[in-house]
Amino acid sequence: MTRRPDLPLAEEPAPRERADAARNRARVLAAAEKLFAERDPASVTMDDIAKAAGIGRGTLYRRYPDRVSIARALLDEHERALQEKLMRGAPPLGPGEDVGPADRLAAFYAAMIDLLETHVHLLLGAETGSARYSTGAYGFWRLHVRHLAQQAGAADADTLADLLLAPLAPELYRYQRENGTSLERISTGLAELAHGTLGSRA
Amino acid sequence: MTRRPDLPLAEEPAPRERADAARNRARVLAAAEKLFAERDPASVTMDDIAKAAGIGRGTLYRRYPDRVSIARALLDEHERALQEKLMRGAPPLGPGEDVGPADRLAAFYAAMIDLLETHVHLLLGAETGSARYSTGAYGFWRLHVRHLAQQAGAADADTLADLLLAPLAPELYRYQRENGTSLERISTGLAELAHGTLGSRA
DNA sequence: GATAGAAGTGGACAGGACGTCCACTTGTGC
DNA sequence: GCACAAGTGGACGTCCTGTCCACTTCTATC
Hints:
The structure is a homodimer. The first copy, chain A, is built from 9 helices and no strands. By secondary structure, chain A is mainly alpha-helical. In chain A, helix 2 packs across helix 3 (57-63) and helix 4 (67-88) packs parallel to helix 6 (136-151). The A-B interface holds A 128-130, 132-133, 154-156, 158-160, 162-164, 166-167, 169, 171-172, 174-176, 181, 185-186, 188-190, 192-193, 196-199, 201-202 and B 128-130, 132-133, 154-156, 158-160, 162-164, 166-167, 169, 171-172, 174-176, 181, 185-186, 188-190, 192-193, 196-199, 201-202. Chain A binds a DNA duplex through residues 15-21, 24, 45-47, 50, 55-62, 65-66.
């Protein structure tokens, strides 16, 4: 009944990915990245990706159930890096003695704009519409902003967190950029928003 | 070359909708309203609507090129009513001597929450994802909020307007409501946001 | 009313995307 | 080098879309 003591401690017996599988995974990610970048991500089909990667439909579906999961895989490391900085990085992005929640929110906004600017196409592929809220990443941003709102003494930090994350929707970002709004203007606007809502009021 | 003077002044000669066409239009709208309400609007197909309305595909497509246009048609009168109130209604929704932009924005938020609560299903059908920004309605809300931001002396009212409208995204509203956040909490949060950003700062 | 022609109708059709299934191939541990 | 698990790829059935066009119904006119 008990686990065999000589097995490695990992819960899963570590199934080891086969060499051809690893090669194909890499091909898929590379092909998808390219396709997402050069076309409207919503129009990229699983077929397109399979063709571009030079593999069959079945192989693609074996690991990625849909386009969204591929975009998420591509996004993953970038989002983790930012999350790391939020938790343990230097202020104002990370926590610090003499930095208030409004400044940290503004810094977070700026960092997200950075992420958006570099990877809108992936974010549009991964977090379009309602899918956004079911992302692990969204949960993390939510926790972070809620925490800042609490620090600022907000009455309902939970609700406020979602409202404050809304302006970071990838669709909005694309819309604004395509309409000629510069990265800086968006960042400045968001900073205003941050200080207005979480700033120390008189 | 000149227009015949005895014709009615309307630009289009008013082609008069045929009786059967009018009947079918009504059927379509009724059926669609019902379907949108009882299912996830994104999953309602043109076929579903045609079947529910008891008409053929071709007939449906004749007037409505896609699901979105049907949802918009259903939404239209409600949105117009609100627009009317914003322009000519009583303060704080409408313009007034002793009402500041922050209060008007809060009132607008509250009215939009009302609209969302009653018609999320239609808004999800009509303004999902990027389609939202190409709506005439969005343009109107945008103009209104920009105007308020200008009154409040915002540096970049244009950019701020989009940012302030983001929390009204139908997907977010559905997400919040489904997660148990009450209508009141959302309204209160938005009011905070309104006063924080457009309120008179010390 | 009868009628001509415009307006409206509905279902068949082709195209494309999805997701599954399974006979075959390839890699890996023994 | 063998056995078998893991991986592969393309064919298949289903669903949805949007168009097309032969047919029907309405309405303006006489």
